């Protein structure tokens, strides 16, 4: 990270890595708010990024204990509150369940019954 920031300072030919017209940004959020406004994004909160982080990890299949550690939560209940699977993710989960239940409930082929071997003592 240090190398990257030092490189940014050299490229900008300025003392500061994050600056405009040679003056340092006093608040990183200022530039972010401007970018959000220019992009037409409304109702954004920085705290929402924590929800996005937790949700994306969960939808990627990361277990709750790992997410809990990454987010710094003391209680797993708080981690669960940050999990917001998308409707698409929920739909895919139900599709997977449909595939599993169809496999489990499929009738056996009658010819397969002939291959059954008893292991009882006689």
Rg (C-alpha, Å): 27 Å
The largest β sheet comes out as:
2 strands, antiparallel
Indicate the multimeric state: single chain
Shape: elongated
Share of residues in strands: under 5%
The helical percent reads 55-70%
Please provide the count of β strands. Answer: 2
Order of adjacent strands in the largest pleated sheet:
1-2
Q: What would the average pLDDT be, to the nearest integer?
A: 81
- Helix-strand pattern: HEEHHHHH
**What's the end-to-end separation, in Å?**
73 Å
The DSSP helix count reads 6
Structural class: mainly alpha
Low-confidence stretches: none
How does this model look, in words?
With 122 residues, the chain is mostly helical. The protein is built from 6 helices and 2 strands. The chain has a two-stranded antiparallel sheet with strand order 1-2. A hairpin with a 2-residue loop joins strand 1 (19-20) and strand 2. The longest helix has 18 residues, at 87-104. The model has no long low-confidence stretch (mean pLDDT 81).
What is the secondary structure topology, with strand pairs?
Layout: H1 2-12, E1 19-20, E2 23-24, H2 28-39, H3 46-59, H4 64-71, H5 76-81, H6 87-104
Keywords, separated by commas or semicolons:
mainly alpha, two-stranded antiparallel sheet, 6 helices, 2 strands, 3% strand
Structure at a glance:
Helix content is 57%, strand content 3%. The protein has 122 residues and is mainly alpha-helical.
